[in-house]
Structures are given as structure tokens and as C-alpha cells.
């Protein structure tokens, strides 16, 4: 499955931020497609979780956020301090959700195309985030002395579990990690 590069995603998020600002200037209506994309990239959550289900009540202390995933299951993710602070500020001014899911998906696809990308689905963000998480977990495990094969297996299982799937599902490993 196609996975966008981090560079394309970062440029697309920049475009979304510009479009969100222009939208506000024209309509006086705030929207946060760029924040939904950043949240999806940091958490590997589904688009519904980072748009319509994310709100002020989702924020937790210690740079964490609780997102409602598939089947109503709540997952807690650690965020970068910068994104957590930005979301706290956003929700203090705009207490509703970040965006409508379909509108976010459409804007995201247009932004990716605008920066020359080809993978326009928001699930690509989820795959990119999963692959980035895998790399980080693998390096941490190898750095702490775990053999490469063991580090790979543990990192794969941990990432797949974080995505809300069974850690032993080989098909999900292939879909998300290309393994």
C-alpha cells in the first residue's frame, strides 16, 4: 500500500494551515484541518478520531490526549508538548470538534495534490505515522541491547496494537508496515 513521505505530509499540513487561515479571513469561521492532520500524524489514529471525536474533553495532563477509536474504544496517546499546547489553546477558543471528517479528508487530498504528492487518502497519514513509530521503537530496542530480529518483532507488534489491532495479525503488519 502506498505511503506518503513525511516531507510531503509536512508540506501538505503547511498548505492546510494556510487554507485554514484564508478560510477564517473570508468567513470568520475557524477550522483546524491542519491540526487534525498533525494530530493524525503524531498518533496514527483514524481520521474520524482526530476530527469529529477530538474535543476539549479529550485533552489530558502530561501532554496526552484520549481519542475514541473504532468501536468506541478510548486510546490515550502522548503528544509533543507543542501540539498539546496548540490544541489546548485551540479548544479554549473553539470548544467543538476540530473538523468534519469528510471535509477534512477532501481538503487533505487537495493539499497533498497541491504539493505534488500522490497518496491522497488520510489513511496514508496513519500508515506513515505507523512506520515512523516502528522506526523509533526498533531503534530504542536495539539501542537497549535487544537483538535486531527481536527488536523488529516487538516493534511491529507494539505498533499494530497501538493502531487498535491484534499484535499478531500478519496482514495488518503488511498493510501498515510493508512487512
Low-confidence stretches: none
Oligomer classification = single chain
Kindly provide the radius of gyration, computed on alpha-carbon positions and rounded to a whole number of angstroms: 17 Å
**SS class:** mainly alpha
Helix-residue proportion? 55-70%
State the end-to-end distance: 11 Å
Strand percentage lies at 5-15%
Give me the side-by-side strand order of the main sheet: 1-2-3
Shape: globular
Mean pLDDT: 94
Q: List SSEs in N-to-C order.
A: HHHEEEHHHHH
Write up what this structure looks like.
Helix 2 packs parallel to helix 6 (123-143) and helix 6 runs antiparallel to helix 7 (148-162). The chain has 179 residues and is mainly α. The chain has eight helices and three strands. The longest helix is centred in the N-terminal third of the chain and has 22 residues, at 6-27. The N and C termini lie close together (11 Å). A three-stranded antiparallel sheet has the order 1-2-3, covered by helices on one side.
Task: List the SSEs and their pairings.
Layout: H1 6-27, H2 33-43, H3 47-50, E1 59-60, E2 64-68, E3 74-78, H4 81-93, H5 101-114, H6 123-143, H7 148-162, H8 170-177
Antiparallel strand pairs: 1-2, 2-3
Helix pairs in contact: 1-2, 1-5, 2-6, 6-7
Amino acid at each position: 500500500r502506498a505511503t506518503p513521505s513525511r516531507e510531503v505530509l509536512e508540506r501538505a499540513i503547511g498548505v492546510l494551515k494556510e487554507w485554514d487561515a484564508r478560510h477564517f479571513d473570508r468567513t470568520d469561521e475557524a477550522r483546524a484541518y491542519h491540526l487534525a492532520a498533525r494530530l493524525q500524524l503524531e498518533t496514527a489514529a483514524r481520521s474520524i478520531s482526530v476530527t469529529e471525536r477530538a474535543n476539549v474533553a479529550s485533552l489530558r495532563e502530561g501532554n496526552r490526549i484520549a481519542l475514541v477509536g473504532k468501536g468506541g474504544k478510548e486510546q490515550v496517546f502522548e503528544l509533543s508538548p507543542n501540539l498539546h499546547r496548540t490544541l489546548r489553546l485551540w479548544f479554549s477558543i473553539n470548544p467543538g470538534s476540530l473538523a468534519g471528517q469528510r471535509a477534512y479528508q477532501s481538503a487533505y487530498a487537495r493539499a497533498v495534490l497541491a504539493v505534488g504528492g500522490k497518496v491522497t487518502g488520510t489513511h496514508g497519514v496513519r500508515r506513515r505515522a505507523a512506520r515512523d513509530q516502528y522506526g523509533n521503537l526498533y531503534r530504542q530496542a536495539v539501542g537497549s541491547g535487544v537483538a535486531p530480529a527481536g527488536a523488529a518483532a516487538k516493534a511491529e507488534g507494539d505498533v499494530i496494537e497501538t493502531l487498535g489491532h491484534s499484535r499478531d495479525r500478519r496482514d495488518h503488519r503488511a498493510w501498515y508496515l510493508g512487512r
